[in-house]
Amino acid sequence: MAIPTQTAALGAVTAAAAARNNSLVAAQLSNAAAVRSTYSTLEVSAQRDGRSWEAGCVRLGMTARTSIFSQTPTMDELVAFFRTPCEWIYLSGHYMYGSGRFYSDKGVGMVFLDDGVSVTVAGEKRTLTKAGGDFRLHVGCTLVVFAACSALRQESHIRTFRTLFDKPVLLGYAAGTGVAINNDMLGGGGIAHAFFSRVRNKRAQNDRNAARDAWMETANAGFGGGVIEDMFRAVDEDGQEWTLSRKTIVKGRKM
């Protein structure tokens, strides 16, 4: 008579585990739905391009989640930023090729890791992780724009970004940029048909590569054929890198 009892107990444990798993999946779907069509901004350098980013997102009908425009954000502000999930993320500041440090001119810095981000403010250092619940910026994320010099240059850094943010589209640069170039790309400068104009049309056509193609087409329209054309980068959700060569959008590395 012990065998049926053991079988029943095992069945109850299995059912409980399945229920917990179903609950987790439901929560993840709910979180992803909550962040759909939202954006966040971390602008720790000149503000003009960050303002163009936000204006473009608003024109697309997106809703703001968190916005930081400061070279000296507090630790509490940064913790809140990284804890708040959203779909599109804009990170604008300086990036140190080699060390992978993203930072402001006022000493605020952070390093992105596979499972979170290490943040330093005024000598205080904290590591915010997914496992610890302090990094949730990846939940529902589909696009990250790194408006910083050479952020998409080193393959190991790109792989870290893809792991950390759960394989979103990555847009940015493999060489030095600046507020004027960032602003041009986002429609606040001299490119008549820039990123947000192009991405709106592509999204209306249900183009799964809308952001990737809009970014590279904008770069080609504004800088294709010039001496800096090969600095523009996109990495799609499949890990394929895209760049410019002789005024043509071409494949780069496969991550």
List keywords for this structure.
255 residues; alpha/beta; Rossmann fold; 2 domains; eight-stranded mixed β-sheet; 27% strand
Description of the structure:
- With 255 residues, the chain is of the alpha/beta class.
- Helices cover 38% and strands 27% of the residues.
- It has 7 helices and 13 strands.
- Strand 4 and strand 5 (101-103) form a beta hairpin.
- Helix 2 (48-59) packs parallel to helix 5 (179-186).
- It is globular, with a radius of gyration of 21 Å.
- Residues 23-29 have low confidence and may be disordered.
**What's the SSE pattern?**
HEHEHEEEEEEEHEHHHEEE
- What is the C-alpha radius of gyration, as a whole number of Å? 21 Å
Helix count? 7
How far apart the termini lie comes to 57 Å
**Largest sheet, order of strands side by side?**
2-1-3-9-10-11-12-13
What is the top-level CATH class of the largest domain?
Alpha Beta
Q: Would you report the number of β strands?
A: 13
Shape: globular
How many structural domains does the protein architecture include?
2
Q: What multimeric state do the chains show?
A: single chain
Largest sheet: 8 strands, mixed
**CATH architecture type of the largest domain:** 3-Layer(aba) Sandwich
What is the helix fraction of residues, given as a range? 25-40%
What proportion of the residues form beta strands (DSSP E)? 25-35%
Given as residue ranges, the uncertain stretches (5+ residues, pLDDT < 50) are 23-29
Q: What do we call the CATH topology of the largest domain?
A: Rossmann fold
Mean pLDDT: 90
**Structural class designation:** alpha/beta
